[in-house]
Specification:
With 158 residues, this protein is an alpha+beta fold. It has 4 helices and 5 strands, in the order H-H-E-H-E-E-E-E-H. It has a 5-stranded mixed beta sheet with strand order 1-5-4-3-2. It is globular. 23% of the residues are buried.
Length: 158
């Protein structure tokens, strides 16, 4: 596939799978042997990997939204940086809802094979998310390119 086709694939996945959570379309985007390299221990592979955890996010963060900032392609690898934000109105992994919002950045690398995603490596600001949700102390600075939604006012405070 071309670089533009690979980028379009990832942008479609962000919209259709992560934002709309149209899990009936998983097989359209992911190989049967898809592997999420930053999944939890013993996590399923293939499209089942998303069926296992995306509903958990939806229940805890029903307004969760990923907004792509940029997407780069090099051969069969696509890197996408996104802003992720949401409000914790439900229980998440046994943690009761805080009612607080978060806004973090994430950078994911995807590998494409035969027009589908076969692997993902993810890096996200989980520490910033936990602090913004009030689950940990601190004022970790999380920013987009324009610093909208960052915690600059708290950065460096004790």
């Amino acid at each position: 596939m071309s670089a533009e086709a690979n980028k379009t694939l990832i942008l479609n996945v962000i919209d259709v799978i992560f934002n709309q959570q149209d899990l009936d379309r998983l097989e359209e985007f992911f190989t049967e042997d898809f592997f999420n390299h930053d999944g939890y221990p013993g996590a399923p592979t293939g499209p089942a990997a998303f069926r296992a955890y995306l509903p958990m996010f939806k229940k805890a963060f029903p307004d969760r939204l990923l907004t792509p900032e940029f997407t780069l392609c090099d051969g069969d690898r696509v890197v996408s940086r996104t802003i992720t934000e949401g409000t914790m109105t439900g229980t998440f992994m046994g943690i009761p809802a805080t009612g607080k919002t978060y806004r973090i950045t994430a950078t994911d690398t995807y590998q494409i094979r035969d027009g589908k995603i076969c692997a993902r490596w993810g890096n996200e600001d989980s520490l910033g998310m936990m602090q913004q949700l009030g689950l940990m102390e601190g004022g970790w600075r999380t920013a987009s390119n324009d610093d909208a939604g960052s915690l600059e006012g708290d950065y460096g405070k004790k």
